[in-house]
Amino acid sequence: MHVRKNTSAFALAAGAAVFIAASMAHAQTSAWTATDKSDVLHQISFKEFRLEGRFLAPPHQSSLSAPVLVLHCQPGRHDHRGTKSYAAGKLVEGWIATGAALDSHAGPLGTCASVEYRRDDMKLQLNCWGSSTDHSAVFLSDVDLNNLLYGHLMPHKEWTNSPQVRKIILGVSEYLAAQIQIEFDLPESTEVADACGVIEHKR
């Protein structure tokens, strides 16, 4: 019996070590990927930024092994009307793909999914984000992206010392199942934020 207890303790410690090592490896390898894209029909070009996260509480069924944050952004100067500032790009569209069927309902601006999220272990926030036509993803507005990357609803002023968010934990309910919980470890994101219009520059 004594041998069994030691074996179980060793297995538990080994399992914990593997989990910690995997978490550290994920944090170290988390990185944005950027790809130039074009929409021939609408005659626009844009950059696609992708960041892979991980499931903390995985969906019951999903076509993806990991959740993905996807941003389509157009770099280029955009002056802010009535101010002496400008953005170096703009968000075309952005979404978080889960690969699962999400629970959605009618909202004031169309079909949406209730989302809970926490930035850098700060206060839990609740919102209703638009859902994709196949109900497997939730869409972000430019205001949502401002909040996720820098923790405020307005664009981030480059001349301030407000730090970038480094971790996002997000929960959204799967249809007829439990809540899916997702974590994104954000690497240095200035290039992404700039191309997507999140950073406000002085003229």
Report on the structure:
This protein is of the alpha+beta class. The protein folds into two domains: 1-30; 31-202, no CATH class. It contains three helices and 13 strands; from the N terminus they run αβββββββββαβββαβ. Strands 1, 2, 4, 5, 9, 10 and 13 form a seven-stranded mixed sheet that branches. Strands 3, 6, 7, 8, 11 and 12 form a six-stranded antiparallel sheet that branches. Strand 6 (105-107) and strand 7 (110-119) form a beta hairpin. The longest helix has 28 residues, at 2-29.
List the helices and strands and how they pair.
Blueprint: H1 2-29, E1 33-39, E2 44-52, E3 54-57, E4 68-79, E5 85-97, E6 105-107, E7 110-119, E8 125-130, E9 137-140, H2 142-150, E10 156-157, E11 167-173, E12 179-185, H3 190-195, E13 199-202
Parallel strand pairs: 10-13
Antiparallel strand pairs: 1-2, 2-4, 3-12, 4-5, 5-9, 5-13, 6-7, 7-8, 7-11, 11-12
Strand content: 35-45%
Instruction: Label the overall shape.
Output: globular
- What is the straight-line distance between the termini? 74 Å
Count every beta strand, where a strand is a DSSP E run of 2 or more residues.
Answer: 13
- In N-to-C order, the SSE pattern is HEEEEEEEEEHEEEHE
- Work out the helix count: 3
The gyration radius over C-alpha positions equals 20 Å
